[in-house]
Amino acid sequence: ELLRRGEAAYAYRIGLRLATGAAVPQAVLAPLLAPVPYPEPLLPVSMRFGVDPLLLAALIRQESAFEPTAVSPAGARGLTQVMPDTGATLAQELGLTRWTPDDLFHPATSIMLGAAELARRLEQFQGQLFLALASYNAGAGAVQQWLRERPTSDPDLFAERIPYRETYAYVQRVYAGYRAYQELYSLD
């Protein structure tokens, strides 16, 4: 019921509590831990930018735990935790007029800008998921520096060598979430 009413953040918090408590059937728990938030903007925006909607949902889960008004200590905002300066650049590129940083708190806008940024990172790193996720979190400059310092063409090795603890954990969590979404929502 919560998911049908658009209460992904609340459903997720309940799922986390249930996961640490008594035995709960996987069929009940899985949709709470891997909800698809705001499907109306998420699905068309994912298609528009060529980003897997399940990857975008996993990113949102990690970035904000589905809280549209989330603000990070660094100042990133909204569901996809876009920095205001990045949001302004993306909004201009996408032709959004009269944009303000508070627009990042609107789910549809946050999802659109986050998807655009993720698509940009995936393109920049030739579809290499771990590199794109690391750059979404730490910045493209940091990822390029890591690749210069420790060159590798093996994405798994890159992921294991991420020197920033926060970014290492971020990539691991988003990827694990993505795999959970794929398992739950597989079309097989």
UniProtKB/TrEMBL annotation:
<protein>
    <submittedName>
        <fullName>Lytic transglycosylase domain-containing protein</fullName>
    </submittedName>
</protein>
<feature type="domain" description="Transglycosylase SLT">
    <location>
        <begin position="48"/>
        <end position="155"/>
    </location>
</feature>
<dbReference type="InterPro" id="IPR008258">
    <property type="entry name" value="Transglycosylase_SLT_dom_1"/>
</dbReference>
<dbReference type="InterPro" id="IPR023346">
    <property type="entry name" value="Lysozyme-like_dom_sf"/>
</dbReference>
<comment type="similarity">
    <text>Belongs to the transglycosylase Slt family.</text>
</comment>
<dbReference type="Pfam" id="PF01464">
    <property type="entry name" value="SLT"/>
</dbReference>
